[in-house]
Amino acid sequence: MSQSSPQQLSLGVSLNDDATFANFYITEGSANAQIVHALNQQLTDFGEQFIFLWGGAGVGITHLLQASCIAAEQSGLSVQYLPLKDMAGFAPEYLLEGLDQLDLVCLDGLQAVVGNPAWEQALFNFFNRMRDSGRRLLMAADQGPHELSIQLPDLKSRLNSGLGYQVQPMSDDEKKAALQLRARARGLELSDEVVQFILHRAPRDMNELFCYLNRLDDASLAEQRRLTIPFVKQVLGF
Fold first, then answer.
1. DSSP SS3 for 142
2. Which of 94, 99, 111, 209 lies 20 to 30 A from 171 at CA?
3. What is the pLDDT of residues 41-52, one digit of tens each?
4. How far apart are CA 84 and CA 110, in angstroms?
């Protein structure tokens, strides 16, 4: 039930082993199901070379980008995931140098660097190198490419040239199912009663909800206790 150790990438950026497509709850036929299908297809010879995802906080964008990296690695592809909010202070050309030799590059949090002329030019050049070499590029931001405050027209044009998807927030029923799916993957039994108790008291952001689940997992393992409402109240302070 303990949290699995992260995978380590070449630039020292870690992937969460829990961030898999199997752990991303989707309803059959939903918009998010179409996104997962497109991301899986991107890793094949028949998929789109460039995909852009966007959505609000907690909808699972980082999960999807890391899931793409994990799936690509499992298929024998070379990958790199970069959270741009943590990289904005780096020289962009140095950071992106050589990444166009990889099979898949995932750039997360594009909003952290747009508006910076050096970053915009570097991203434009990098996009062209990835396109020309036939490599796959997956990018994401909190807004769609039309809404982002991009100053370089050529970069805006590039970001609008591929497939674009808005990741949709989960309904309460989907959040309940997602928590139970993640709990089962960790060997935890999360009853309907307990998960409903959590949802009525915790923030609705899925990242926060999964953090709560991590805490419950650690406490359950340490104390060898089942996840009952009294135990959840004790651990989470509800």
1. coil
2. 111
3. 999 999 999 999
4. 6
